[in-house]
Amino acid sequence: MKKNQTVFLKLCLADALIKLMESQDYDTINVNVICNLAGVGRTTFYRHLGRKNSKDELLIFKLNYEWECYAQKHEEDVKKDKGFAMLNYIYENRRLFTMLNNNGLVVTIMRVFEKLIPAGEPYDKSHSYLISFFSYGYFGIIYQWIKYNFDETPEQVQKHIFDTFSLGMKNQNANSNPASPDC
Question: What InterPro entries does its record include (predicted)?
């Protein structure tokens, strides 16, 4: 199967899964029902997704694909501030992110962020710690935003991020330049 056909197939399956999640618990949805709704055979499903975590993989594929489409449409915004562009992407897809959270799929959301934040850029071991720190910290902010039902705009969330970094920098500067020397 050609790459475009595989992408189309996975998107159809992911869309079927998401549609089913609108009316059913994630854990009750099985592969047969997804395949029937998508018009795809089980053999084809397993050939392209395998057996382990296949539903999660569909959702991760869908969110990553949608981010790539969003990033292409908003290329200048992504170049200017990828983090803020991601906030806008998430906000535009808040219904899906809320549905994932409500179905206990926090780890699935986190796995999406693991792929999106570094953007496939190669890095060495020492940089991997820093990237993980920011990726999971950023995910934590997004997770809280989801839990608060997206009650703030992307601009407000971005301000929280800036305020947090500013406070952290102030605290670091205060600790590195104590008023009185240690004895």
Answer: Homeodomain-like_sf, HTH-type_Tx_Regulator, TetR_C_Firmicutes
